[in-house]
Amino acid sequence: MPDTTSKPEIISPTFYSFDKYESGIGIGGTTVAVNGGTGGSKETDMSGVSYDVFIYGVDLKVQKVQFPTWTAYKDQDDIEWIDGVNLGNGVWRAAVVYSKHNSELGNYITYIYADGKYEGAWVFNVVDSQKFTFPTVASLSSGFYDITVEGVPSNVTTVRFPTWTERNGHDDLEDPWIEGERLTSTSAPSDNLDLVLFA
Questions:
Q1: Cβ(188)–Cβ(151) below 8 Å
Q2: Neighbours of 162 (CB within 10 A)
Q3: In the 8-state DSSP scheme, what is residue 180?
Q4: Whether 55 contacts 65, CB under 8 Å
């Protein structure tokens, strides 16, 4: 994988102390080399729909940053050139949507070009860690049953559960779809699904 760091920016903070009268004195200083480069998480979950990749320390004169992205599976057959969004202060972002890459699992590879010049790369591992819990048989006397989905990433804001009976197709599909309620940071159970007897 190519080098993902850019030329460091030198920052020189100076330290001062102040008394209760706001009288101050310099007590020291240092020099810090702040590297730019690419960034993001190393692993994401398929249920997150998409993930963001960033590059930091881009020259402020740069007009366009592109993030060509593909999956390791079958190499570049699914390559997508994503135009980055300028967040300001030399930071650019791109959103990689799984469905544009056949919703494949495994490594997603992103190279980054600023005004056509290579700047770095990033690799994400996309996994599927969802677990569903639901009854195989439910009783009408209970009036409802629960379905729980675990492994939902924190960036997912809504989980919906379109539900219908086998009889007469989708004639009883609830609209809008049943919206789940988040119980923990990684689980999204459904609202109670009402059991209705159709004559």
A1: no
A2: 11
A3: P
A4: yes
Closest among 97, 83, 13 to 55, alpha carbons compared: 83
Q: Residue 164 corresponds to which tokens in the numbers above?
A: 């219908």
CA distances from 174 to 46, 85, 193, 194, 196 (A): 26, 38, 10, 10, 12
Among the listed residues 85, 100, 92, the one whose alpha carbon sits nearest the alpha carbon of residue 49: 100
Beta-sheet pairing, 178-179 with 160-161: antiparallel
Residue corresponding to tokens 């770095």 = 120
Amino acid symbol at 76: Q
pLDDT tens column, 24-82? 766 666 655 444 566 665 666 666 788 888 998 899 999 999 999 999 998 899 999 99
Taking the C-alpha atoms of residue 83 and residue 16, their distance in angstroms, rounded to an integer, is: 43
Per-residue tokens: 119: 């700047």
pLDDT, tens digit, 9 for 90 and up, residues 127-154: 887 778 888 888 888 888 888 888 777 7
Any idea how long the chain is? 199
Are 66 and 82 in contact by the 8 Å Cβ rule? The answer is: yes
Rounded Cα distance, 44 and 97, in Å: 12
* Omega prior to 176 cis, within 30 of 0: yes
Q: Strand locations in 140-190, DSSP E?
A: 144-145, 148-150, 160-161, 178-179, 187-189
- What the block records as the tokens of 95 is 């959103």
Coil/strand/helix, residue 194: strand
